[in-house]
Amino acid sequence: MIIDKGVEKILDEILKISKVLAVTISSYEGLVIFEKGVEAIDKRKLSVEIAKIAKSVKKHLPSQIKEGISLYVYYEKYELIMVFLENSIFSSLCEKNVNMGFLKIKMKKVIPQIKISF
Amino acid sequence: MIKKEDNLKTAPNSLIFVSLASMYLDNGMVDEAIDLCKSGLKIEPENEEAYLILAQAEIEKGNIDDAQKRLVELLERNPENAAAKGLLGQIEKHKKEEEEEKVEEGGEKREEENAEEAGEKREEENAEEAGEKREEKKVEEGGEKREEEKVEEGGEKREEEKVEEGGEKREEERAEEREGKREEPVEEEITEEDKRLEELLTSNIDDIIRIEGIINCFFRLKSGRIIKSANFVGKIDEVLPMLDSLLDAAKSSSQELNMGKVTLVLIEIEKGIFYIFASSDYDCFLISKNAENFGLVKAILPRILG
Predict the structure, then answer these.
(1) Whether CATH 3.30.450.30 fits A5-117
(2) A21, B106, B167, B180: which one has the fewest Cβ atoms less than 10 Å from its Cβ?
(3) The model's pTM
(4) Which residues of A touch B253 (CB under 8 A)?
(5) N-terminal to C-terminal alpha carbon distance within chain B
């Protein structure tokens, strides 16, 4: 997987945040571009579901809105945060009660670099 | 305003920011409505309803010239936009009235000055004015009588028309009944459980709306019944499809990935935030100005809802 080393470093930092299980960068078609995290998690399946959720929102929005949308889904067992970028979706899967505020800040910090990389 | 149906035909994807701006405006958040419309128009410059909401917001703010400018811009794009024409007409009329008032005020002042300079002439003028006024009164009285007569005549005619129309309608109804065509109005059946929930949730809505930043709140029961406050502003059916679609996709993913039930969804779009709290009996939808209240909402809402 080709990814800028600076981006990878920040993604590693995100993974160090307590209760963060996985980070993925995936396409709107559900394909994995980059993934890292707990091996037990099926990231390909996760990317497919993330793409489905993104599609459910995007079909109701003007096509010109390509980014700037953040989505947080709280499940009984996990928490999922997604940031919509122009050509990809940046997401983190976490255990329950993750420090969402901190995670959000860290994720937003890496977005400009992800945009350059892809 | 543009009819919703028309808007859906012309701009099916633009409802979210327009609806949100409309809600801001209805809630007196004029600056927010202006900001949202301006940024929305950068993305979608052909959105006619955004122009109209922006013009209305500018009027609310007292920026009549800006409102006029927006409406002119809109009419340059679509000279047939009736709502823009109507609003522009109102603005122009208002402006004319203001100008006339100014002219009248100016005239009165000049008259006073003239009267001071020529005191003798004033008496004569007063006498003349009094005479004119008496004449006007007579004319007005005569006019009023004629108006009354016309109203009476018109009223009688309308009454006759109503009786005729009523008779025709009753005839039609009888005919339909004879033919068995007439459909009885279907009364929506409300279960006891829905009634209980409706009472409970309606009493909670006011508490929820008091949370800082919350613009709107409504519930949807499992039966599909929508619960909202009596003074709810905005159009639920413009935002519900997106929220519904999102909730369905999130629920589907929870099953596929074995993540447990969906309890809360937050989506941040442009300058609006939508919260969805899902429970076994109902879904609670909140529309918020920003996400700064997220922690507060997350902590307080379960307590309010019990």
Answers:
(1) yes
(2) B180
(3) 0.64
(4) 49-50, 52-53, 73
(5) 40
